[in-house]
Description:
The protein has six helices and no strands. By secondary structure, it is an all-alpha fold.
Amino acid sequence: MKTLDLYLVKKAPALPKNVKDILVSVAPWLEVIGAIFTLPAIFALFGFNAMMYGTPYGGYAVARAGYGFSIASFFLFAGLVLMLLAIPGLFKRSKMGWNYVFYSVLVNAVYSLISFQLFGLIIGTLISLYLLFQVKSYYK
C-alpha cells in the first residue's frame, strides 16, 4: 500500500483540487450506476450458464468453453458485492468505502489477469488506482 501511495500520489502528477472534489462527489453515484448495469449482466450469465448446462448441445459448448462462464460469474458477482458495500461508505466519505472500491479494483485486476486481458489489466487497473489514490485523503 505504501508503494502504491508513493508512486500514485507522491511521484505522479497530482490532479487539481477541483477535479478531486468532483470525483469524490460523483463517485458514489458512479458506483450506483455501475451496480445497476452489473445486475443484468449477472442475471444473463447465470441464465446462460443454466441454459447451457441443461441442453445436450449446451453441454458440448460448456465443455469447449471450460469454466470461463463460471469464473466470469464469480468475479462479476464479487465485484458487485464490493460495489454495493462501498456505496454507503462513499456517501459518508469513510475509509471503509474507499477500501471496498480498492478491493473491487483488485478483483477486476485478478480477473483481467486470469482471462489474459492484458490491456484491461495494465491500463484499466493503473487508471483506476491512480484516480483512487488521488482522492484517498478525502476519506477518513
